[in-house]
Structure formats: structure tokens, C-alpha cells
Specification:
Number of strands: 15
Distance between the termini: 27 Å
Strand content: 25-35%
CATH topology of the largest domain: Aminopeptidase
CATH class of the largest domain: Alpha Beta
Protein name: FemAB family PEP-CTERM system-associated protein
Order of helices and strands: EHHEEEEHEEEHHEHHEEEHHEHEEHH
InterPro entries: Acyl_CoA_acyltransferase (IPR016181), BioF2-like_GNAT_dom (IPR038740), PEP-CTERM_FemAB-rel (IPR017469), PG_Glycine_Bridge_Synth (IPR050644)
Structural class: alpha+beta
Number of domains: 2
Shape: globular
CATH superfamily of the largest domain: Gcn5-related N-acetyltransferase (GNAT)
Pfam families: Acetyltransf_6 (PF13480)
Length: 352
């Protein structure tokens, strides 16, 4: 919730564009601003530019040399899925992060003007909290966030009984967790998983860029059964939060309860390091991942994805639940994995 203008600031906000020398100042603001998330960090500018080639506008509002708000934006121009300006594509959260209402309004106005100038179909904010009650919105997505206890055993006992049994099944199977220095083992597991779901895969380069930009705040945990990695997850660390973001398992994962054990290990390691919030990320209502997270004892919280329509007449529906894509999903599942991995990055970059 943004407040009135801070008492030490006298000048109205001026909106500028983040330059190469602004990243450190930008990230200091992100760490301190209650509205900001991991997906507001400056590193996303390089990731989106280099991994996907999309133009970006990372806007800030400042007065008297002091940052008062930020708004990261990227444009996706796709012959398949339209032309959009989004805060922020490939991220579950976004929108304006500001210390006061005046700065927030200045950034919002600048984004709307940019969207009009670019001639996009729509401007999209991926908000944790509502901002524009009069804009169309999507009610499909929910996030799952829960406080962590400092004690691992307390967190384990907080997991509902049936789900806790799956964690213990994985432990009884002799599964072990190991942090990896690179994304290679994780990528093979992740790519196989999304192929089974019938969705296109991100490129290897994308995950390498995430590690390059965010360093220790982007970590990979793999679950091993003997000498074989059977599941893996890439997580983000932000303030006192842990966010397992991309995950997947091989063919043996289900029988070993490896994915269940994997998320428990993320939770256990995180609470031992001092993390106090577990962010299970977004899921679409009515999907298996939505039910899986509820089974862990997480309460779904609606995300407020808001759209200002410009050339578009309705909110976009570029997601696997759209009946239009049912046949395409089935066809994608039948592609050889190597071919799907080669084609996938060219398609997923257009989705956001």
C-alpha cells in the first residue's frame, strides 16, 4: 500500500529510464520497498534482453535525487500471440513498486503513454494487490505463500498428513539432495517434464543467464537416487523469502515421491538459512499444480493481473487451458524430445 509523499521530499516525481549505472541504486530500492518483489530486480533487464531479445523499459520515479518508485516493462511482439507491454513477462509478479501514491501515479501514467506510443494490443500489470478496479483483469492465477518456522520439524508437522507421508516416502527411498553449481542436470529434468505436459521449453541459455545475473540468489537443488538425479528445482532467494520457480522430474520421480521430497528439501534448507517465507509461486485454478500446493497446506491467494486494452478487445488467453490449444498440446507431446527442445525456445519467447 503506497503512502502520501515522504515529508523529506519536496519536488514532484520525475520519471526516468534505468541506465547502465543505475542498477545498484535500483536494487537497493527493491530491497527496501515493501511493494517490490524478486521480479522487480534490475537483473531482469539483461535476462529479458539477452535471452529473448525483447525491448525493455525499466522506469523509475525520483525527486531530489531520491528514488520513490520503479516499474519494469518489456514489450513482446508476436505474430502468434499479439503485441503487449507487460510488467513483467516470464515473471509471476510485477507492476508498480512505489513508496508513495504520487510516484506510483507518475509511473502508471508513463507506462500508459508508452503503451499508446508503441501501439500495443494491451498493457498488463502482474500485481500482488489490485491497482485499477476499472481495468479488465484475469482471475485465473493464484499464488501460494506461507510463513516458515525457524525449526524444520515444525514446518514438517505443518504439512498435512497425506502430503507429509509422501515426503517421508521419498526419505525412506534413500533420496538425497545436492546443490549444483550449474543448471545442466536440472535442465534435462525440467525439459522432460514440460514436454510431458505439452508446453514449450525455455532455452539452456536462459537458465545460465539467471544464474549469471542473480548469483547466489538463484540456486539449483537436485534430488538424487543413487548416482542418478531424478528431480531438480531452480529457486530464487529474496530478502527472507525462498521461491522455488522452475522444477521437474524424470520418469522415476513419481514412484519415488521425488518431487514431494524435493520441495521439502528446499523448505528445510531455506529455514535453516533464515528464510521466513516460502513462496510456492503461481498456479492456474483447476490445475494439478494448484491442487498440489493446496495439499501442502497453502491457501491460494488471487493474483490481480490487470489489463489496459488498447487495440485488443478482450483479455488475452495465451495459456494451456484455452481450448484452442488442446490439439497443439497433444501434438507437442508426441514430438521427439530433442526436436521439442530445439523448437521450444523459439515459441516460448513469444508467450511471456
Amino acid at each position: 500500500m503506497t503512502l502520501d509523499r515522504p515529508p523529506h521530499v519536496t519536488a514532484p516525481p520525475i520519471v526516468g529510464l534505468m541506465g547502465t549505472g543505475d542498477a545498484e541504486r535500483w536494487d537497493r530500492f527493491v530491497q527496501a520497498c515493501p511493494d517490490a518483489t524478486f521480479f522487480h530486480r534490475a537483473g531482469w533487464k539483461n535476462v529479458i534482453e539477452q535471452a529473448f531479445g525483447h525491448p525493455v523499459w525499466f522506469l523509475y520515479a525520483e525527486s531530489d535525487g531520491v528514488l520513490r518508485g520503479i516499474l519494469p516493462l518489456a514489450q513482446i511482439r508476436s505474430p502468434l500471440f499479439g503485441n503487449s507491454l507487460v510488467s513483467l513477462p516470464f515473471c509471476v509478479y510485477g507492476g508498480v513498486a512505489a513508496l508513495d501514491a504520487e510516484a506510483a501515479a507518475a509511473l502508471d501514467a508513463a507506462a500508459q503513454a508508452l503503451a499508446a506510443r508503441l501501439g500495443v494490443d494491451h498493457l498488463e500489470y502482474r500485481n500482488l494487490a489490485p491497482r485499477h478496479a476499472d481495468w479488465p483483469r484475469s482471475d485465473m492465477y493464484h499464488t501460494f505463500r506461507k510463513p516458515l518456522s525457524p525449526e524444520p520439524d515444525t514446518n514438517l508437522l505443518a504439512i498435512p498428513r497425506k502430503q507429509r507421508a509422501m515426503v517421508r516416502k521419498g526419505a525412506a527411498a534413500g533420496l538425497l539432495s545436492r546443490f549444483d553449481d550449474d543448471t545442466e542436470r536440472f535442465y534435462a529434468l525440467y525439459a522432460a517434464s514440460v514436454h510431458r505436459l505439452g508446453t514449450p521449453v525455455f532455452s539452456r541459455r536462459y537458465f545460465r543467464l539467471l544464474q549469471q545475473e542473480f548469483g547466489a540468489d538463484c540456486e539449483v537443488l537436485c534430488i538424487e537416487h543413487g548416482a542418478q538425479a531424478v528431480s531438480g528445482v531452480l529457486s530464487f532467494r529474496f530478502r527472507d523469502e525462498i521461491l522455488p520457480y522452475y522444477g521437474g522430474g524424470g520418469q522415476a520421480a513419481r514412484a519415488l515421491a521425488a518431487n514431494d521430497y524435493m520441495y521439502w528439501e528446499v523448505m528445510r534448507h531455506a529455514c535453516q538459512r533464515g528464510s521466513r517465507v516460502f513462496d510456492f509461486g503461481r498456479s492456474k485454478a483447476g490445475t494439478g499444480s494448484y491442487d498440489f500446493k493446496k495439499n501442502w497446506g497453502f491457501t491460494p491467494q488471487p493474483l490481480h493481473y490487470e489489463y489496459q486494452l488498447h487495440r485488443a478487445r478482450q483479455v488475452p488467453a495465451n495459456h494451456p487451458l484455452n481450448p484452442r490449444y488442446r490439439l497443439l498440446i497433444r501434438a507437442w507431446q508426441r514430438l521427439p524430445l530433442r526436436l521439442a527442445n530445439a523448437l521450444g525456445p523459439h515459441i516460448v519467447r513469444q508467450l511471456g
